[in-house]
Amino acid sequence: MKPIVQLTEKEYLDLVEKANFNNDDIRSRAKKLYETYGTHAIKLTCTVGENSYDDTIVIKSRAYVKNWDAKYPILDEDAKKIVKFVESRSEELFYNRFDRFIYNFDELAKEKRRYSNRIKRYTSLTITGWLLAIVTIIITLFLNLKNG
To answer: In which domain, by residue range, is 64 found?
Structure first.
């Protein structure tokens, strides 16, 4: 049988205070250990480019979680959740921050495409006109030589 020990209120409060201090000390030491040994990294790569189909600006984020130390590994499911969150949040932030500029670039790309189409159209029209002019001159010369 274990002996029962009775404490006074002061002794009890002193033990509670020590336990709370010990709890804070444990948390501060755990934080320091995590900062020292719990080295995980999230690498985020953002690319800005044109969509090859319709000349619109696209921002793509790619992220991955790196475990440098195996003492505190991150589960694959948790790493995937972190990567998904970081990628979606970063793309959302970029679009929210640069939406006006992306729209302006898209409009410039559309104007560039329209301009290049006009140049092609007018170039083909010009070439066709010159060919018709040359054919007309040749026909006129042959008719004049025949009659003349």
So the answer is: 38-147
Q: Are residues 98 and 26 in the same domain?
A: no
Spell out the per-residue pLDDT of the chain, length 148, in tens: 778 878 888 888 888 887 777 777 788 877 777 666 666 667 777 776 666 666 666 677 777 777 656 566 777 787 788 888 888 888 888 878 877 777 777 787 788 888 999 999 999 999 999 999 999 999 999 888 887 6
pTM of the model: 0.41
- Tally of CA atoms within 13 A in the half-sphere of 38 that contains its CB: 9
For residue 57, give the H/E element and its range: strand 57-67
Residue with tokens 């006129």: 140
Residue 40 near residue 55 (C-beta atoms within 8 A): no
Q: What is the spatial distance between Cα 72 and Cα 27, in angstroms, rounded to a whole number? A: 16
Q: Are residues 96 and 111 part of one domain?
A: yes
**Residues 80, 16 within the same domain:** no
Q: Give the Cα separation of 106 and 113 in Å (integer).
A: 11
